[in-house]
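Bumping with the actual sequence this time:
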Amino acid sequence: MLLVSAARSVPFARIAGRRAASAIASKYSNAVYNAALAKSPQTLTKVHTELSSFTATLKQNKDVEAFVHNPTLSAKDRATGLASVFKTLEGAGSKKEPVSDITKNLLTVLSENGRLAEVEGVVDGFNELVSQYNGELNVTVTSAAPLPKDILSRLESTLKQSQTAQKAKTLKVTNKVNPSVLGGVVVDFGDKTIDLSALSRVTKLNAALTQSV
């Protein structure tokens, strides 16, 4: 299969903004990206649309979510489940369109290798690569509570002055909420992470104290 051969030939590339992504997820992200782009930019766009539709379905459909995160299913049940997922992605009526072989191969290989539960991380990495291809820079600002618009605007203005942002065609800032961040924020953009959270300072303090004991 095209995806499998691509996975063997594509070197590991760091996925920007995915500090917690596993090397395996990154490998699949790069493989599907290169396999799609090798066919054509149009195929890359189609796969991007299909995977976005899949992740949206995953969040909205409890049955699909349960299927993806169930490691106990037999090979037959996994095949049946994937067939149902592909049918959903195809749509219905006049909007019905066959799912690309690349998307099918990705989900099938993940399922066969027991990695289907990692699909969201794989898609996130793939989306980041597509953004880079389109000249987009996605910035994720993680905070304990939603940030006011004026704060986000100030952050965006500051980030636009960075060398990384100036190389991009567009800049998109997204605010994610994570109560564990405590005070401050964590900013992920390009291949950089700026941790300005209180938790980070506490962690560094604990490490220093541990080393001094």
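The tokens above came from a reply further down the thread. The longest helix spans residues 41-60.
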